[in-house]
Amino acid sequence: VYSYAAAWKNQKTESEKYLLIDTLKTLWIGRFVEYANEVEKMDMNEAEKVIQKQAETFEEKFDYLRSIY
Length: 69
Hints:
Number of helices: 3
Structural class: mainly alpha
Oligomer: single chain
Radius of gyration: 15 Å
Mean pLDDT: 95
Number of strands: 0
Order of helices and strands: HHH
């Protein structure tokens, strides 16, 4: 996803940006399905912890994102 962000910024035309984002849909759908399977039998608090862990990972990697963007 971080590489997609950097690639999006470097696309010259709107159509190139659209095509790039369109390919990201498959990854997003796959991640959504994985999350749904992961939390299927969890209560809301447990599922929230999964999201919180993802947010923490994003924060840890934010400097990397900034460096390539």
